[in-house]
Amino acid sequence: MNLLFYISSFVAVAATILAITRFHPVHALLYLVVSFLAAAMIFLSLGTPFIAVLEVIVYAGAIIVLFIFVVMMLNLGKDTALQEKNWLRPKVWAGPCLLVLILLVEMIVLLLNAPDVTMHITVVDPRKVSLSLFGEYIIALELVGFLLMAGIVGAAHIGKQKKKILHRFLN
């Protein structure tokens, strides 16, 4: 189990570094998805399957869809269509696919092998999670929502600054 934890941790750190250092936003999003999946594998190897599923649904699902929506909103013009054709080459997908393949093999090994060490697992049902999110952590949850909205509005504002028209009356 410790080996699977360390492999997942290595994949998470590598994918996060690659997500930060990529120039193209689509490449960065691909590595960010791999990083979220690796974090889910870390939780799964620690014996918390509910948190692992939440990680996949909330982060690798919903947040990435939000980021992809923002990237699609900012891609304007014919130059970006040609750039997207270059992004669809197999060499772009090779790195994220290799890291996800490592995580898939790790998950299969984790699910097929019975745990050798007895772990103390505390069952956390969705009701407890929702009560804590909308109870004592409601302010943090709302601040995260405001932060995401501010990021989207800021990205849309920056993306629209590339237009050559200064004002509708100054054509």
Describe this protein's structure:
The protein has helices spanning 2-21, 25-45, 49-74, 78-87, 90-112, 126-133, 138-160. It starts with a helix and ends in an 11-residue tail after the last helix. By secondary structure, it is an all-alpha fold. Helix 1 (2-21) packs antiparallel against helix 2, helix 1 packs antiparallel against helix 5 and helix 2 runs antiparallel to helix 3 (49-74). The protein has two domains: 2-119, NADH-ubiquinone/plastoquinone oxidoreductase chain 6, subunit NuoJ (Four Helix Bundle (Hemerythrin (Met), subunit A)); 125-171. The longest helix has 26 residues, at 49-74. The chain is 77% helix and 0% strand. It is flat. The protein is built from seven helices and no strands.
What's the quick description here?
This protein is mainly α and 171 residues long. It is built from 7 helices and no strands.
List keywords for this structure.
about 170 residues, mainly alpha, Four Helix Bundle (Hemerythrin (Met), subunit A), 2 domains, 7 helices, flat
Write the layout of secondary structure elements.
Elements: H1 2-21, H2 25-45, H3 49-74, H4 78-87, H5 90-112, H6 126-133, H7 138-160
Structure classification? mainly alpha
> Given this structure, which CATH class of the largest domain is correct?
Mainly Alpha
The number of strands is 0
**What ranges have pLDDT less than 50 throughout 5 or more consecutive residues?**
none
- The percent of residues in helical segments reads over 70%
Number of domains: 2
Span between termini: 65 Å
What is the CA-atom radius of gyration, in angstroms?
Answer: 20 Å
Q: What's the order of the H and E elements?
A: HHHHHHH
Q: Largest sheet, described in full?
A: none
Number of helices: 7
